[in-house]
Structures are given as C-alpha cells and as structure tokens.
Design a protein that fits this description.
Blueprint lengths: L7 E2 L8 E2 L11 E4 L1 H12 L4 H8 L3 H21 L2 E4 L4 E2 L21
Length: 116
C-alpha cells in the first residue's frame, strides 16, 4: 500500500481558477488540471523567486518533493500553453495556515482548506 501524501502548506488560494485560450469555445478544448499546491510551488519559485530550499520550507515539504511538485506544475502549464488547452486550478493535498504572522510556525496543525 502506498504511503499517504503529506499535506503541503499553501498561503495563497487563487480567485480565478480557470484559464482558456481566447476565441475558442470551452467545449472544444482539452483541459489540464493544476492542483492548488502545484500553483503555490509555481508562485513561490517563479513569481517570488525563492530558492527550492526556501520554498520547500514554506510548504512544509522536503526539497526533493518541492522539486517534483514544481516540475510537474511547469510541465502541465507548458502543455496547456503550447497545445492550446484550458487550465483548471483545483484539488490537491494542502493545508491553509491561519492568516497573519508568523507563517508556518508553532506546534499546531491547522485544518485543511475547504477547496478540495
């Protein structure tokens, strides 16, 4: 039996969860699903410019795990852009910590977000 996935800490949940090429009806498009934790990995690595070590600490995962998450996310987004597919952001194993500093500190395990 495979080991259950460890929940990743996510500090950002997107307001917009669907993207598609302009001018093509949605019913004619294939879609790619990017999970919320993959989007967080993209945000931390590519938008915030964090190193993989820093970003892994933020998400409460190991550096190799973070590397796999961000690689998978980049592959899915590239597939959508190159092949003209829609991108839907949904699901994933993640926990949203309570707002406010300090992010990710303390002995508490916060509840899972309602966006699964």
């Amino acid at each position: 039996m495979p080991r259950p996935k460890k929940s990743r800490w996510v500090a950002f949940y997107p307001q917009v969860t669907y993207f598609k090429p302009q001018g093509i009806p949605l019913r004619l498009l294939s879609q790619v699903v990017v999970t919320v934790d993959e989007l967080e990995a993209l945000r931390l690595a590519d938008l915030e410019g964090m190193s993989q070590d820093e970003a892994a600490q933020r998400m409460k995962v190991s550096r190799p795990t973070f590397g796999r998450i961000v690689t998978q996310a980049r592959k899915r987004v590239a597939d959508a852009l190159v092949n003209g597919k829609a991108i839907q952001v949904q699901g994933g194993e993640f926990i949203m910590p309570p707002p406010g500093p300090p992010f990710g500190r303390g002995p508490h395990r916060w509840g899972k977000g309602p966006w699964r």
